[in-house]
Amino acid sequence: MAGVGKKYTKESKVREIQKNLHKRAKLKRQYLKTLEQEGYEVPEEQKKQRPTFEQRKGEKKQKVDEKKEIARRRKREQKEEAEARRQRELQELEQAKAKLAERERRNKRVLQKTRSGQPKMGPKINDLLDKIQNDTTYTS
C-alpha cells in the first residue's frame, strides 16, 4: 500500500489549487493564441489600476468609521436585548409571586376546619367548582 496516505492534507489542497490555476492560465493563453491566428481581435487585458495613497488612506478611514458604527450598533442591540431579558425576567418573577399568593390563599380557604377539627366541605366543593369553570375543556 505505497500510495495510501493522507489524501486531503493542506499541502495537497494547495498543490491541487495551484495546478488548477496553472491549467486555466495555460488554456486561456492557448485560446487567445488561436483567436489571433484565426484573425479575430484579441481582447486586451486591462491592468488593474492600483489605488493611490490618498485613496487607500480615505478607504482606511472609511473602514474605521464603518467598524466604529458597527460596534456602536452591536453594543446598542446588546443593551436592548439585555433590557428586554431583564423585563421578561421581572415579569416572570411577578407572575410567580402572584401564582404563589393565589395558591396560599386557596390553600388557606380549602384547609378550613370546624371547631371540632373536621374539614369544612363547602370551600373544597367551591374550589373544585372554580377549577371546573376555569378549565377550558369543560367550557365551549
Give a quick precis of the structure.
The protein is mainly α.
Order of helices and strands: HHH
Total strands: the figure is 0
Strand content: under 5%
Class based on secondary structure composition and strand pairing:
mainly alpha
| Uncertain residue segments | none
Specify the number of helices: 3
Which percent bin holds the helix content?
A: over 70%
Shape: elongated
| Biggest sheet architecture | none
Walk me through the structure.
This protein is mostly helical and 140 residues long. The chain contains three helices and no strands. The chain has a domain at 54-140. It has helices at 10-38, 53-110, 121-134.
List keywords for this structure.
elongated; 3 helices; single chain; 0% strand; mainly alpha; 140 residues
Topology:
Layout: H1 10-38, H2 53-110, H3 121-134
